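Model the whole thing, not chain by chain.
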Amino acid sequence: MNGVRTMGKKMIVVFTLFVMLFAGCSLKEKQEAITDEVTIIAPSSTGGGWDITARAIQDILMSENLIDEDIRVLNKIGAGGELGWKYTQQQKDHVLAMNSSLLITNHLLGQSKITYKDFTPIATLATEWEVVIVSKDSSISSAKSLMENLKETPHAYKIGVSPRLGNDDQLSFVLAGKQAGVQPEELDFFVYENSGQVVDALLKKQIDVATMTLSEAKKYYDLNQVKLLVISSDERLKELPEIPTWSEEGIELVFEHWRGIMGPPNMTKDEIQFWDRTIEKMVRTKKWEQTLQKYMWKDFYKNSNETSKFLEEQSKMYETLMRAYRED
Amino acid sequence: MNKLKKIPLQTKILGLISTLILLIIILLASIFAYLQSVDTRNQVKQLALQSAKTISLMPELREAIEKKDLEAHFRPIAEQVKDQVNAANIIIENREEIIYSHANPSQIGKKNVDHTNYHALIFGGSNNFEAEREQGSVLIGKVPIIADYGEYTRVIGTVSVEFLERDIYQNIYSRIKTIVIASLIVLLLGIIGGIFLTKSIRKDTMGLEPHEISSLYRERSAILLSVKEGIIAIDQNGLLTLINHSAKSMLNLKDEDFIGQHVNHVLQNIKIDDVLQTGKTIHNVEVLINEKVFIFNLIPIIENEHVVGVVSSFRDKTELKKLIDTISEVRDYSEGLRAQTHEYANKLYLLSGLLQLERYEDAFEFIQKESAIHQHRNRILFNQIHDANVQAILLGKLGKASEKKIILEIDADSYADPLPSHIEVTDIITIIGNLIDNAFDAVAHQKEKKVTFSITGIGNDIIIEVTDNGKGISEDVLHSLFSLGSSSKGKNRGYGLFNVKRIVESLGGTIEVNNEKNGGAIFTVYLPKKVLE
């Protein structure tokens, strides 16, 4: 009898332990991969494309309760994104960073040692169109005449870009120029820190023409400060039916500028899965749709895995594009 | 002539070692040289970019470009950097690709028509590339000169730093030279090592070349196979190194490989490994193995006054004895026949004497009696026993019996057809000869000496029976009667019945011994007519 009783006690102890163990496991499973405040790095100044996107993400994730923790957006400005990305690369906590093709081109131009391979891709979010702008009272009337003049005298106009040479803003302009027969190496580019400065320079006639993304140019267009000469989309936008496409101006060019989000290297599987789930939920919200509409972006969602492949393709593409100019 | 074709060991080993080392050295040296050249080129590329970058960042440069007076303001600095990094040329161009600074002064002020500035001028990119110049091909690092105007930055020119590939390779060659010298030293060491190795090997092979060793080995194998003697050799640990075919068949060993086993596992009865301790030669020692006697010779192998092994040779003494017995048997027959001839001559003398004495009645009666004996005996011998060998043996034994005054009676009911072929002549000689001889010995001291032989081959078995009227066989001898060395005839005898039993059993038959009521022994042998499957 006594023996049986001790056995029974032991069984209870063992059973309890098991229950605790399983309970512990399931508790752990329920826990999210993210336990602390999340920082999103926008490697540009406030109002830039990266900044707008980062703040849209912050807003939607928090207002739609897609994430329990706080999110803050940190603007790390400088060297065409490089400073912000370097900062991200060194972080271990929950830090994400906005990116674009500049991540690839900076390296290709020998301006940076950082490549897309140094990060964990999380998502590609949206693309937007490139536009060419001039000041409201500019004598340049159309993209066509702009290109014709540049073909005659490449130094005729000073062209503003930001934040860095080699980005999609400049590349789209160079590609268009190439098609129009302009000697691209003689084009005179002025490089500013952000699109705001570009527009300022445009307004005070420091430069004659500028190239930037639609969302950046839109607010100055809405303020009636600048004219949009041309858009890099395949057809006129519903929202801006008055802006002609490059093909209408006699140049066969369609150019999309994408933006995405990435994390520091060596993110855990749990973290990646968490962000895949969260971002996927985010791009399905009404608010995100409204954001896309507001800035005239195009949905271009790709999850972590797809983005990884996309970046590889893009890297190859930019390499051939830039090499083509060198070897002409 | 043949000897000339065979390459001596030393040449072979040295050749192989040198070739091997040379191959490895060439391989390693080329890998090293390749890595060095890639590495050096990369270093030079980096150096070109870095120097160009450094120059492009100098504030004096921007000033000079803006004043369009590079000659006075900046050329000395460019020259200094060029000498410091050992570059072939440093070229500075402005936005319009007009050359401001160049190693060759005649180029200054001209427009660069290389079209190598796209990358730097359009995208502000830095890059490395190769180009052909008058002095040879060059590695170029090109960077943009980016001027910061506070609100904006702008590319205002490019800096190119050029390194002559010739200079780079010069550098690599001088490094490779060091490797080649080190390699030659290794090769030399290898050859010296090879010489020592060959000497050491030749010492082990007692100066024999490999082909000599292999021909010796072939000869030894052939010799070992051809000899009838059993040969076994062991090494200093008592492990078998050699056992020839004869040894295996004599010792009834299976035809498997015993090499490497301890000799005592294979041969229990003789301690060959004892010789390893004593180191003494042993001649003609008799050893009983599997009820056979072997005569062993054990000879130690001595090298440098140490016993390093034992060679043992042996013969089957039983076989030897059988041979000797058969020979003496044959000799007995000739003796017997001679005795018979002699007896016959005596009878003829008796007859001629009776006739001269004109005792015709007695002579006639003598002839009648002799003839009756002969006719009776010959009738059985020639009409009932049809095997010529048995006839011959019995004839011989009859002669011997009459000489020894023994009555050898061949049973009147004896009958035998020619013996089947599987029963060899020597077998039947051994069986019948030994049994009858033993019977003769048993009756030697009796008053009336009588031995009866009978053979019947009517049924499936041939039954041979030899009866004597001697004392019979005592109980204590009976159980060891057929074992080796069991004899009442003294030392070194006793092979007879042992051999008989062995042969009978090998023919699938049996042998029985019984004592007769009135004294005397009966030996009965049953031999099957058909070969045992």
